[in-house]
Fold each of these.
Amino acid sequence: MSNILLDLSLSMVKKDEMENMKAFIQTAHRLLHESLGAGKEFTGWLDLPNSYDEAELNRIKYYAEKIKKESQAFVVIGIGGSYLGARALIEALNHNFYNELSEEKRKGPAIYYAGNNISSNYIWDLIDLLEDKDISINVISKSGTTTEPAIAFRVFKEYMEKKYGKRGARERIYVTTDKDRGALRELAEMEGYASFVIPDDIGGRYSVLTAVGLLPIAVSGINIDELLLGASDGVDEYFNEDLDDNICYQYAAIRNILYNKGKDIEILISYEPNLQYFAEWWKQLFGESEGKDNKGIFPASANFTTDLHSLGQLIQDGKRNLFETTIHIEKPKKDITIKADDNNLDKLNYLENKTIDFVNKKAFEGTVAAHTSGRVPNIVIKLPQLNEYYFGKLIYFFEKACAISGYMLGVNPFDQPGVEEYKRNMFKLLGKPGY
Ligand SMILES: O=P(O)(O)OC[C@H]1O[C@](O)(CO)[C@@H](O)[C@@H]1O
């Protein structure tokens, strides 16, 4: 049966180096599964796909349908883990030009994002774009106090109330936040907004398979049952503590081996442009989980072949402190056959009857060969197809690999104390009371 596969043949790591990681992997496995590790109170994501509350799932589907019916545009307000996972999957699993499609062709409203920056230009332009559209909004914040989404929501709440009146706005505002704490929870109760809960034991960057991600994802027409099925199969498949039989743990182990050899930048590569935000989600997951105590691999991303024409030189020939992890999609959703041309001025007739995906795959093979000859270790994660099932499983694969990798690195993979530093300075400069 087809499955996600991990190809380590070009990772430049020897078999015995992997063997030597077995004991560390088993320790990390126990820290995670027996709740013995740092941040153990934030491991609710581990079994979530297997224990999903059916009633909650049905509520998500119900409101997703309501939003679809009532809206031409849907605005997701959130930052970091409170929007990246949703955006990653909405873009990866839909049409490349989803928002530009006609309403008949699209399976849901156009989806826009706010509260992920503090640019007045951005908010202004978004409001301008939404002027003649019927909209609904989903404000997502676990703490309920993050500045960026809080400011955006203040603007959008006023906008909605002007456009639809207080009662009408109430019907179109959806809140995803903590069960009982925070300003957003208080507001949701006070205003009577439909609301969803981010479980206490799941941090922002691990929350894509909760209502945080599932509501916006379902609104875009993606099958969330298939997504959860993939993740749920991942729970079983990536449980085995024997390194030989667990590709998720192999990925965690090899990252640590490479890091200890001075490879402190990992570039996540894809040959599909609509995986750009999947890479953004992955960057937060690994960056916020591992980058602490003066340690951690810097997670970067590139889209090939596009970036081969900008970053390719550096990867091939620059400082040898990086490795690549490619997400390789075996079968495209659609393909195009290249035809012969009578004039052949572009000299492309040698590709007659080959498909564009065939060329993309040759570009991948050629690139991996070039970069490994330039001493860049390459890890390849192969997915049979770009669909809900495999991406659900891949999400879980990375979440778990990240937790295991963080424990092997000796950090708490579930906190993010460093992020507070810029906030404190900003609050002081803004004159926030108490700072
Ligand atoms: O959901 P919240 O509480 O608004 O947080 C959003 C993001 O901000 C951070 O807390 C960092 O400040 C991330 O960890 C999180 O994903």
Note: The chain has a mean pLDDT of 97.
Amino acid sequence: MVEVRKLGLGDVLEILPKKHGDHRGFFSETYNAAELKTAGVDLVFVQDNHSYSAAAGVLRGLHYQLPPFAQDKLVRVTRGAILDVVVDIRRSSPTFGKWEALEVSAERWNQILVPKGFAHGFVTLVPDTEVLYKVTNLYSKEHDRSLRFDDPAIGVAWPTISGGFTLSDKDRNAPLLANADLFD
Ligand SMILES: Cc1cn([C@H]2C[C@H](O)[C@@H](COP(=O)(O)OP(=O)(O)O[C@H]3O[C@@H](C)C(=O)[C@@H](O)[C@H]3O)O2)c(=O)[nH]c1=O
């Protein structure tokens, strides 16, 4: 049975699927809709994503899609490790602008559920890291947004990575929270 743990912010969850190890290796149900529904997570995922980052310090984020293409994301790591970061960007939320981080890794075999209304990003902690995630809405370039990972108004405590961060141009030039299109 999958274990579901509430983190500190909104409905952000850590999900720990069972791993059955034996002399051959292991087997794991990495997603079981019925078990998650019993645990209170009733979502319909419509797209699976997979990203590979060659180096430690690859920082992707902070990303979200605006309604009507907002996405819940169920994120896991099959190789390597990330520090995963979520930021509450719902203006009406008592925790608006607050962030939370969780290490997600192949070793921990954990997942993070990022609800709609949260910006999401991660930095790879080791080279050759593969991140797989399910989303509840299709990609829409027009609704896709990035928020500055180092906005002091948010103040995410990103880890220090020797060699620094590797970012996309889109993420390097992303707007600050004060100038971004957010959720109501
Ligand atoms: C996100 C996405 C990108 N793309 C394309 C657009 C672009 O040409 C290429 C790379 O896109 P990006 O630079 O946005 O990829 P990336 O920076 O890895 O974006 C991802 O970051 C993490 C943190 C998330 O939370 C994801 O939702 C997503 O935003 O892939 C799709 O075709 N479908 C998708 O769903």
Note: Residues 46-179 form a domain with the Jelly Rolls fold (CATH 2.60.120.10).
Amino acid sequence: MDEVKKGLEGVVVDESRVCKVDGEEGKIWYAGYDMDDLARESSYEELLFLLRNDRLPSGDELDGIRDEMAARRALPDGVAELVDREAERTAPMDLLRTSVSALASYDDEADNLDDPTDKCLGVLAKMPTVIARAHRVREGEEPVEPRDDLGHAENFLYTLHGEEPTEEEASAMDSTFILYAEHGMNASTFSACVTASTLANVYSSLTSAVGTLQGRLHGGATETVIDMLEDVGDASNAEPFVEEKVSNKGKIPGFGHRVYETVDPRCAHFRRHIETLNPDSELLAVADAVREEVEARLGDKGIFPNTDLYAGALYRELGVPPAFYTTLFAASRAAGWSAHIAEQIEDNRIMRPRVKFVGETGRGYVPVDER
Ligand SMILES: CC(=O)SCCNC(=O)CCNC(=O)[C@H](O)C(C)(C)COP(=O)(O)OP(=O)(O)OC[C@H]1O[C@@H](n2cnc3c(N)ncnc32)[C@H](O)[C@@H]1OP(=O)(O)O
Ligand SMILES: O=C([O-])CC(=O)C(=O)O
């Protein structure tokens, strides 16, 4: 009864139709569809439709969700002002979290839970706008308003850089949104579900999730990986770097996963896009060299690359500064958060685990002047 499952390892909290992660085989299925196929063939908007409706859209339905997302990209004036005011001094993930929270103030029916997915899509459409705007303000550049004739990923790069991306760049960006979109009951999704289980509004649930993704054991690893690759500097330094980490029992960012016993299947997609955009990427060479050393030393222990190993190197090729990497992970994962929030609300029971009490009882209270 009182067995403690530290880190909730192996605990099954509910049923879900959203995503199957097969950690033994290294496969991901989004609503029954192979993630590998979707990452190559699909678009983020199509995935949003799939997660919402449990089926792929017709051509008209796909146009419909694209138009709907595009129409919801603009920020309320108050949130645009918040971003403009805070972007310089506030870390991007903190600002994204605060902006998601602030969006509740501009929804007259924020607490209405009749169609949580629709409300989440309104937030999800705006997250890239917040990110691009914050980046431009930090750089001392004029914000670029979103365009409704561009897809979700293409529009993000357009608002970030002020010019339309190439087809390869837009396709790589779209892939990153798909790759990071969903991954079962990970920490940030769990956090969203705990908040949703109290019947809090979706702004609260999404804000909880953004906050949870920030940590460097979860989404924040996208940024620590880049710091590590830059510190290593050259592929020839990978061996002594990994040797030193292993002998000091240090954790190497971008490796290890609670679910995978093999390489994370998303790595290959991030990697192939880096190769397409820049076959001479030095960061890619360093990441590959570190990977080879880690697999040789820790593969027996089940330590393999996770999705974050190559993500930063790809974001770099797309011109995204490192401080914004985790915000893009959040903007992508919002798809999964939304789907799980909807499932939670549809068949809800408040989340309320227990802790095993190991403290004392019966301590006699002594008034302060007698201590
Ligand atoms: C999108 C994502 O969130 S993916 C994960 C992103 N996070 C990272 O890349 C950070 C580095 N990785 C880690 O810290 C962990 O692997 C986590 C947080 C992802 C998973 O943690 P857990 O499932 O709790 O594994 P735990 O930390 O207990 O590690 C188990 C063993 O593997 C080792 N290990 C786990 N990850 C690593 C790593 N990255 N480098 C070296 N050793 C590792 C641990 O030292 C531990 O060894 P021990 O049994 O000898 O003490
Ligand atoms: O599933 C997890 O524990 C971590 C995660 O979010 C991911 O790998 O995308």
Note: The chain is about 55% helix and 5% strand.
Amino acid sequence: MNLNMPFMVITVGDTMSTKGEAVVSIRGLTMSYGANQVLRGINLDIFQGEIIGYIGPNGAGKSTTVKIILGLVDGFKGQVKVQGEDIAGGGIEYKRKIGYVPETAEIYDTLTAHEYLTFIGEMYGMDFRLVDRKAHKLMALFDIADVYHARIASYSKGMKQKLLIISSLLHNPDILFFDEPLSGLDANSVMVFKEIMTDLAAHGKTIFYSSHIMDVVEKISSRIILINNGQIVADGSFDQLSQKCREGSLEEIFNQLTGFNRHKEIADEFIAVLDEA
Ligand SMILES: Nc1ncnc2c1ncn2[C@@H]1O[C@H](COP(=O)(O)OP(=O)(O)OP(=O)(O)O)[C@@H](O)[C@H]1O
């Protein structure tokens, strides 16, 4: 592992001229919570059909970036455009084209999935019967159709996660933001969801996928963006990043670019503290 260049910026993506207009365009994005400057000048263009693996250490600002794009967080500086529309303009129409699986979600869990999903669908202007039929079919494909009329409070963690995924996709959005979408899913469901992501991109959808599961990000992403200390420190396909960093896995690239190699030392110290009398 080469730790001599922990904070270099690696950008190896194509230029805009080869890909048309950006679906999401971010310029000079900064964001602070009080004295804590979380984002320090993010510049980013995301293009149709890309699966962006958006990675970085805990607290790096991944969820904050997504929430700003979705219009859920105010107080940022810089410019964010979604399909050419500046989100600071106050319009909400662009949100119809977006689906979102948040890292942690508040679901109305006294509702049944039937009630919840038809409510969400109708909020997007869908016909009740259409959303009901689609919701039931999608629940069946995730093997949870039998609880369609059961209260969400009775669901396991993975069942709730499947429900969140379905609710993000019901209205067939063009741009998907998935924040740790695999959380709680069993191995079979992970395989299904990975295929769904690939198919969505092949159908021209754009996916912004934030996760700490490096081997999935490595395999699924057409482009990987790593942020550290509020800045983009790497941007390119896995093959491009691995050639530049001379590392074999995304986990090792992550270690190198975040300047981290103390895992063994920290684990040893952790055990030593547990052993203290
Ligand atoms: N509502 C908030 N108020 C104050 N600080 C916040 C708030 N939300 C996030 N932060 C801070 O912003 C920083 C970035 O948080 P964010 O959730 O964007 O990180 P992340 O990269 O998604 O992390 P993780 O990988 O742990 O999910 C952290 O220091 C966090 O404490």
Note: The CA atoms of residues 61 and 213 lie 17 Å apart.
